[in-house]
Amino acid sequence: MDTLIVKKKASQGLKKGKALIQLADIMEPEVVERLAEGSIVGLKSVAGEWLGLMLVGRQQKGLGWLLTQNSQLDANWLEQRVQAALSQRQSYFNCSDLTAFRLINGEGDGLGGVTVDWYAGFIQLNWYSQGIYHYRDELVSALKANILNILGIYETQRFDQQVAEQAINHLEGQLAPAPVIIRENGIHYAIHLGQEWMTGLFLDQRQVRDYVMQGAAGKSLLNLFSYTGGFSVAAAMGGASQTVSVDVANRSLAKTQENFALNGIETPSQAHEIRVMDVFDYIRYAKRKGLTFDRVVCDPPSFARTKKYTFSALKNYGQLAADLWCLVAPGGQLVLSTNHSAYPLERFKADCLAACPGAELQASFGLGEDFPRSEDERSDYLKVLVLAKGTKG
């Protein structure tokens, strides 16, 4: 078995529970070139101290993931990790009001490079590195051996630049209906498997959707970068008087209407408006018209480019927050979200508060219990802030 020497700072991180090993962490990077994807290699410190075993799985700047600090792996190590992950989610399987959640969250469950989601009996695997993909058959077998009543299994390979038709596959079992209807906090949402890179709902935002629903009665909501309208539907089901959903993607109209319809709400209507347009154009329009909302929810991508605008969360989030603050009615709330893994929480918080004069940080959200993290900073990627505006504006 090959053994790599890890630099001092990275060695200290591994001892503290970090799992990601980057190429820059290795003393002799030229040795790395001959390592095969999916192989397991030893790690030692510069002083010769044993650090553990790494699974080689190249992903962006990453070289692989720490599997164990021991010098050996049990033959059934992968199934043991699947069993441990599933035992942590047993309460979700027993909840009739929640039929979609994360089963395995990559390095947070000791399986870096792959995530596994549950959608009302269907499983979706997302592969982010070829290294762990070498263990696909073993992972699928472990899931089937430990979960009853799996209807079908789908996968998406994200480690190569492929077109969707090649990267997205139905592996086995039933073909999923279009849509798969899942339930969350008393609300139905449409999930589309085997078709696109995204399934139709961001499972990591479940707590935020519930928060939006709980405080929606009689209030207006503006949902920007609305995707399939999840926040808007949650607000409507919570009794919102008005929702406006804005997204530049043409697909957003039909899919947002679909989610409203699943919950018995006809759209578009005077109460629930759906706009397919550039979000930044809508912000300019709303400011010009003097529009305000009791709640403004914004969940932009980390980077976006439209015909007229370029947005980078790290560079432009403060300005975006400042523009949105103008659209929040007195006594209202601004809900700001980012999933940029390299945008630290404290910086995100400082940027947003500086952009919103008089704002009070009323609540914050991160990843839920079905999204465990490792000690790697970028593992805890989701950051959501709720800023409150005073009644005098």
Describe the structure in brief.
This protein is α/β, with parallel strands linked by helices and 393 residues long. It has helices spanning 8-15, 29-32, 77-88, 90-93, 130-133, 136-146, 164-167, 206-214, 230-237, 251-262, 279-289, 313-325, 345-355; strands at 3-6, 20-22, 40-45, 50-59, 62-68, 100-105, 114-119, 122-127, 152-157, 168-173, 180-184, 187-191, 220-224, 242-247, 272-276, 293-298, 303-305, 310-312, 328-338, 360-365, 383-388.
Write structural notes for this entry:
Helix content is 28%, strand content 31%. The chain is an alpha/beta fold and 393 residues long. Strands 15-14-13-16-19-21-20 form a seven-stranded mixed beta sheet, with helices on both faces. It has a five-stranded mixed beta sheet with strand order 1-3-4-5-2. β14 (242-247), α10 (251-262) and β15 form a beta-alpha-beta unit. α12 packs parallel to α13. The model has no long low-confidence stretch (mean pLDDT 96).
